[in-house]
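Fresh eyes needed here. Have a critical look at this protein's tokenised backbone.
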Amino acid sequence: MLVKFRIRGALRYISHAEMLKVFQRAFARAGIKVRHSQGFNPHPKLSLPLPRPVGVESDDELLCVWMLIRDASCVMRRAKEAPNTIENVCDTKKSRNTQYAIRNTIEDRLSEQVPQGCELLSVSLAKTNKPVQPCLATYIVPVQPVCVNDKLTATIEHLLASDSLIIERHREIKVSKFRRVDVRPFLESIELDSRDIVIVCKITSSGSIRVDEILKLLEIDAEKLTAPVRRTNVQFVSREA
């Protein structure tokens, strides 16, 4: 199952691991059973394919949930008889009407359990169990009008015209605290849209560019922002498990 949602306000400060715990508890409170891993320490099989940087809002977050296949009639009957319990269905052989009803039931129950600042946008049943891989993401950087000037335009043109952009990225390794990374391949485009800087970033198996690195390259600090940085229009592709 795929759950799309947005993050706003103070909730943007929670980490990737904390966001997973938020949804684990929301599913448990909603009575929606999630498949668990095997072994001595089983845990719910939830995944956020693209971790959200702390402090960044998002309009296009994706949560992947592995659920159990049950009989659809049993799901709807139990949903009526026991409001706090829902069996889970992901069987593509079920009728569209039944799947639609199940999606709506899950979405309604889950929406009641997520905290303020998290808004569910849609719930859909995946057609395949293959994991997904993010490939593109857009970041909106709202800046003060005084910052939209010739200097910023020149900086953007310089970044896009460069063959390479070498930065030092911190790493927690005793041998060296930093490693040199060329982030130019991860910058798809940078444009000025009114008072916003719109940055499209590539995401590959070897990594991507970070939000703080983008701001540093643009010479934009927190005092020049008029609102939090926001991520939107994330594109995903299926990959082999």
Notes: The beta strands are 2-7, 46-47, 57-65, 118-124, 132-142, 166-170, 178-182, 187-193, 196-202, 230-238. The longest helix spans residues 96-111. Residues 132-238 form a domain with the Alpha-Beta Plaits fold (CATH 3.30.70).
